[in-house]
Amino acid sequence: xxxxxxxxxxxxxxxxxxxxxxxxxxxxxxxxxxxxxxxxxxxxxxxxxxxxxxxxxxxxxxxxxxxxxxxxxxxxxxxxxxxxxxxxxxxxxxxxxxxxxxxxxxxxxxxxxxxxxxx
Length: 119
What we know:
This protein is an alpha+beta fold. It has a single domain, classed as Alpha-Beta Plaits (2-Layer Sandwich), CATH 3.30.70. Helix content is 30%, strand content 23%. It contains 3 helices and 5 strands, in the order H-E-E-H-E-E-H-E. The chain has helices spanning 4-11, 41-54, 81-94, and strands at residues 19-20, 30-35, 59-65, 70-75, 98-103. It has a 5-stranded mixed β-sheet with strand order 1-5-2-4-3, with helices on one face. Strand 3 (59-65) and strand 4 form a beta hairpin. The N and C termini lie far apart (65 Å).
């Protein structure tokens, strides 16, 4: 397994793993991610979808906000959710385009700005 120094020596850049903002035990089938560069949204979606298909994980729901660089996948839980969470965490964290991600059942939420009531 190559180490980060070898990667840096070969490519001239350091790699940084995406941060999981909650615990791996919080996995219930869904995960939300935030990209460093929203322009890579299409490629990241395709990579994650291909990975999930390869591992036999059935995608139930997706939601994307490409302009903001956010995406959500919800997959059917299999016989071993702990193993699935480790696979998802390992794959998503190594994607160089992903800044951070979280295991959640809530898809992308639009921020609502409260309206000031007129008196």
